[in-house]
Each structure stands twice: as C-alpha cells, then as structure tokens.
Write a sequence for this structure.
C-alpha cells in the first residue's frame, strides 16, 4: 500500500511537492520509487537552472534503466539534495524525507492550482 | 499473450515483479531487490528459473559431425559429459545464437539455446539435418540454475549419491531425483561456481521449493542475472551478439576448434581469425559518475569509434560498466575514451571484458 502524505501536493507523473510560500521542495512518490526499484544514480540539475512545468529535469537510474522526473512547476532551481550523489537509495528509503530531490522557486503561481491533492493522487493510483 | 514456465506460480507466490522477456512472463526481481539478489549470488546461492530457454537432444551416428558442421567448434573428439560453449554461424560467419552443446554419449548431444532464438535455432538445424540424425526438442523439461559459493553444498544435500564434489566445470552428470532422470551441469551465467539442472516439468515445482527451503538459497530474477553476467563480460544475444557479428569480432575466437576448417561460414570466420577484423567487443568502464547504457556512442577524442551494446550499474564495483564494439586498433585495455549519455560525453576507459574474477570451479586455485 503506497504511502501518500496528506499535507503534500502531487502530479500525475508521480512527483510530490511541499510548498512554503513560492518555494517548492520536490521528490518522487512512494509509488514511483517502488516501481523504479533501487536507485543507483541520480542526475541532479544545477542550482539556477530554469525549468518549465512538465519538462524533464532530473534523471534517476535504477540498475536496469534510466527514468525522467518532470518539473511539476515552472521556476528556477534553488538547491539540490547533494546527499543523493553518494546515497541515491535515500529516494527509495525516505522518498518524502531525506530523499527529497531539489527545491524550486515557482515563478508562475497560477500553476499551483494544477497540482493534485493527496486524495486526487490516491484516486489516480486506482 | 505471453507464455509461462512451469514455475510461474512459484514466482507469483514469492512476490516477484513479473515482466515479459522473450515471449515469457518472467520474474525480473523478487522482494529483496536486484542489488541484494546480485550480492547474494556472489556470497551464498541464488536460484534461477531459466526454463524459458530451449533444450534439445541431437542424436544419431553422425550427430557429432552434424554439430561440428554448424559451429566453429569440433565435437568429434569431445568426451561424454563435456559441455562446450559455442555459436551457430550463418553463411557469412554471423552468429545465429550462442549455446551450450554437451556430449551425453558417442551419438547423443544435449543443447541449451536462448529463449529468444529457440524457434530460429531449431528451424535452422532441422533444415540441415542429414537422414540419420534426429533433433528432439525437450519441451517437457524445466531448467533451474543454482549459482554461488554455497551452491555445491546445497546441491550435495539433494544428491548425496551423485558425488558432485568431483564434478568438474563444464561437465554434466546424469542423476535421479525422486525417481526421475535429471541432468546436472556444472556451469552457468554468473561467474560463480554453480549448476544448471534439467528436470522434468512435473517434478520442477517440488525441486524448486526444496532448494528454496534451504536458508542459503534465495530466488533470483532476470535483472540480477543480467548484472551478474555483465560483470563477467558474458555476451547477451540480441544485444552483444547478432547475425551481423562474427565470433572473431565478438572476441569469441577461442571457440574455434584448433584443426576445425569445415563449418558454415568458415571462409569468413577463419580468414578473420588469420588476418584480423575492423571492430572488436571490449569491456568499458566509466571513470566519472553516470551510467552508460546500450546504444551509447563511444568516442576517442572527436572521433566516434564505436557503440555500447550492453551497459549498466555493477553492484560489485559500484561503477558503470558495459560491453561494446570499437575500432580494432583502439581496442586496448587502458585506452581512454568517452561515452555519450544524454548528450554529455563522460570519461571512460576500455577494460577487459570481465570485471569480476570468475569463481567457476576450474578457476578456483586449490588451497
């Protein structure tokens, strides 16, 4: 049974978003990490990079394959979780905690309403 | 609709993630996950269902000559009980499949062929069978591999009379299990000591569960099977080998029988063996972080010199490793190269095909 914290927002591509003002902390959901399997490498973006919503901006690699993570919002990368360089498996073990991927400053606040609630994401997983 | 091996329900009960492979619904990994499964095989014993692969018997007075005519290897003087790794070659010297051929008796051979190629291999052989040679696919047999340093101890407990301690690498012994005949071959696809057991499908489930009841044994999926063979530099047909590639290009010239001259594609293969080829299969290791996969372009300076045909993460080395074909002149261990991953060129180096030392029985030095 997939863990879906109620206080977070979600996307259809299985990312979660924690909003604090216009700063969004982003990761992938428990469902996503389970489907990907153990990660062995995370290709993080550089701070300052501008991203557009739905554009791929992170690559996570399992033993078998690479998968893209899509920007949930349009904005600028503020910080990345450097721990993932030496410990990519934090994404699997703590997808909502120490396995966070990066922080974005959201530059188009209208998009916030497009994010899914926990209930909506739960319904998506069917 | 994908086929299922006779052990499908076992994989479901064990909680395997199942995916299609070569037309079969196969276990890719079990709940422990690929990294732990891989490590377990290298330290204990892993159990693999490889029943999707093809098994067949070739028999008749001219069976040895027939098989010798289809591969660069000669089977005329092969003693009973000896297995050989070889390839089926086409008229241009290209590889139709890689396979294991074991002599059971002067006029009887046991073949194990890749799942994805079995129909093609059988049709190829059937079309060339002389009148007095028979080809019999063994559709009522499962194939189970037990691989790892504890494999012998586990199997000896199941076959106490078979004297497995003195069964050498690449040797087959016939035995019985609960009254039915089985073949036990000391070989595998992991680089560890281990065995492949051919057993009738009716007994396969009980045999599988019996071995799993031993705490030293874990079930292992196809994902770990791939990372294990990649560490050993073993090729995977359809990725590292295909019909446009000769055994000489594939760095498999060692399968060519010393005096063997007459076989399909011999003209090309032997001429390449004597004069060289323009590209060779080599090992590749990234020297900076990232993971390079099949299809990645390989560069030496500004020049494209080849392509990766298999790649992934090595749990034993914690590095990105793979195999590919590069311009023969640069196919030297230590040659600095770059591999292109998502538009970025990552520094790498050409390596021997094998990244981990083989522990197969003949490689193990006596103490």
């Amino acid at each position: 049974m997939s863990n879906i914290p109620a206080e977070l927002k979600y996307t259809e591509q299985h990312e979660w978003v924690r909003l604090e003002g216009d700063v969004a902390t982003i990761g992938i959901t428990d469902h996503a990490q389970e489907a990907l399997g153990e990660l062995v490498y995370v290709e993080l973006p550089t701070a300052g990079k501008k991203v557009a919503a739905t554009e791929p901006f992170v690559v996570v690699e399992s033993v078998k394959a690479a998968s893209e993570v899509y920007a949930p919002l349009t904005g600028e990368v503020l910080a990345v979780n450097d721990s993932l360089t030496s410990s990519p498996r934090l994404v699997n073990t703590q997808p909502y905690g120490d396995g966070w991927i990066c922080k974005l400053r959201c530059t188009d606040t209208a998009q916030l309403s497009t994010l899914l609630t926990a209930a909506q994401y739960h319904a998506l997983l069917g | 609709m994908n086929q299922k091996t006779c052990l499908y329900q076992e994989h479901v009960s064990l909680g395997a993630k199942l995916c299609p492979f070569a037309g079969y619904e196969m276990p890719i990994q079990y709940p422990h996950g690929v990294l732990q499964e891989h490590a377990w095989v290298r330290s204990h014993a892993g159990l693999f269902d490889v029943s999707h692969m093809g098994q067949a018997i070739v028999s008749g007075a001219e069976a040895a000559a027939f098989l010798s005519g289809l591969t660069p290897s000669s089977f005329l003087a092969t003693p009973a009980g000896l297995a050989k790794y070889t390839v089926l070659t086409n008229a241009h010297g290209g590889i139709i499949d890689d396979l294991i051929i074991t002599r059971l008796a002067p006029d009887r051979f046991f073949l194990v062929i890749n799942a994805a190629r079995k129909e093609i291999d059988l049709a190829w052989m059937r079309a060339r069978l002389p009148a007095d040679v028979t080809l019999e696919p063994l559709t009522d047999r499962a194939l189970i591999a037990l691989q790892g340093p504890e494999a012998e101890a586990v199997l000896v407990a199941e076959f106490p009379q078979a004297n497995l301690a003195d069964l050498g690498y690449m040797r087959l012994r016939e035995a019985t299990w609960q009254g039915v005949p089985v073949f036990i071959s000391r070989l595998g696809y992991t680089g560890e000591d281990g065995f492949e057991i051919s057993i009738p499908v009716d007994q396969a489930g009980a045999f599988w569960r019996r071995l799993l009841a031993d705490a030293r044994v874990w079930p292992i999926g196809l994902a770990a099977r791939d990372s294990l063979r990649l560490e050993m530099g073993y090729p995977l047909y359809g990725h590292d080998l295909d019909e446009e590639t000769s055994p000489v290009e594939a760095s498999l010239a060692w399968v060519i029988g010393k005096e063997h001259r007459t076989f399909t594609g011999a003209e090309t293969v032997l001429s390449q063996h004597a004069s060289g080829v323009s590209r060779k299969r080599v090992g590749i290791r990234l020297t900076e972080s990232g993971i390079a996969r099949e299809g990645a372009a390989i560069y030496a300076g500004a020049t494209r010199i080849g392509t990766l045909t298999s790649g992934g993460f090595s749990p034993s080395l914690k590095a990105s490793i793979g195999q590919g074909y590069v311009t023969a002149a640069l196919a030297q261990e230590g040659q600095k190269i770059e591999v292109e991953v998502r538009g970025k060129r990552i520094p790498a180096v050409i390596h021997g095909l094998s990244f981990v030392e083989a522990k197969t029985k003949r490689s193990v030095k006596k103490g």
Notes: The longest helix of chain A spans residues 118-125. The CA atoms of residues 65 and 105 of chain A lie 29 Å apart. The radius of gyration of chain A is 13 Å.
